[in-house]
Amino acid sequence: MKKLIIVIILFLSMNAFSQNEMKPFRFYVSPSLHVGFFNPTEVNNYIATKAEESNLTTTAGSTDLIVNFNLGLGLGFRFVNIFEFQTVAEYSIAPKFIVVTNGESLSYTYSRFSGGLIANLLIPLSSDERKTSFIVGGGLLYHNLSFEEYTSSTIAPRFQIGISLNNNKFNPQILISGDIINASDNGFDLNYSGIRIGANLNF
Q1: What is the CA 45 to chain-centroid distance, rounded?
Q2: pLDDT band at residue 16, thresholds of 50, 70 and 90?
Q3: 78 CB-side CA count, 13 A
Q4: For residues 28 and 166, is the Cβ–Cβ distance under 8 A?
Q5: Domains of the chain (ranges plus CATH)?
Q6: pLDDT value at position 56?
Q7: So what's the pLDDT on residue 4?
Q8: What are the pLDDT digits (tens) for 49-103?
Q9: What is the CA 56 to chain-centroid distance, rounded?
């Protein structure tokens, strides 16, 4: 019985060591979920005008789009726990529902599909480089934007900072990122610039 206990303890100790041992290269799959905040002025003016044309009077809330929701999936390539590349493929949606008590309700959706590549520098926050790192990163993404009958596409930068909780098997990253996205369709401005807060769940 004592030998069995000793074997179990040795196994757990070796497993814990392998979790903290820095690997020269890591590959991972990265689902992500973020909430974004933006102010697409011309899109909001369009919605407000349609509300006025419907003789809608708002007593609470706003017709403006303010929040968007982002769901993504990517791949990560990390080198010596200091530098990494992340591919990005994500879908973002900003819905607006206007409930009208004496008429037909209004609903709008402003969406974005994006794909590209992000490079991150991971700066250790302690002498134990496997524990926690500060992230500074950025890259270029292709964006396809759609609102009502308007569609357009552009290539634009993304910048991000955050915290990486390092582990060889599970490596969540908490991120704040900023997008600068401006495009137009026949003079109609499709602006998706804003700030996002969320997490990448790296496996």
Answers
A1: 26
A2: very low
A3: 25
A4: no
A5: 23-202 (2.40.160.20)
A6: 65
A7: 43
A8: 988 887 766 555 688 999 999 999 999 999 988 899 999 999 999 999 887 666 6
A9: 34
Distance CA 15, CA 78 (A): 21
pLDDT digits (tens, 9 = 90+) for 172-182: 999 999 999 99
Buried b (16+ CB within 10 A) or exposed e, 37-63: ebebeebbebbeeebeeeebeeeeeeb
Give dist(CA 39, CA 67) in Å, integer.
9
Two structure tokens written together for 80: 């010596």
Tell me if 178 sits within 8 A of 31, measured CB to CB: no
Total length of the chain:
203
Cα distances (Å, whole numbers) of residue 106 to 96, 103, 189: 8, 9, 21
Band (122; pLDDT cuts 50, 70, 90): very high
Q: Which amino acid is at 14?
A: M
Angstrom distance (rounded) from CA 95 to CA 86:
28
Query: Residue 76 in contact with residue 26, Cβ under 8 Å?
Result: yes
Using DSSP's 3-state secondary structure scheme, residue 37 falls into strand
Q: What are the φ/ψ torsions at residue 145 (nearest 5 degrees)?
A: -110, 145
177 and 120 Cβ atoms separated by less than 8 Å: no
The residues near 148 (Cβ < 8 Å, ≥ 6 apart) are 46, 108
Tokens coding 158: 């993304």
Note whether 190 and 37 are within 8 A (CB). Answer: no
**pTM for this predicted structure:** 0.83
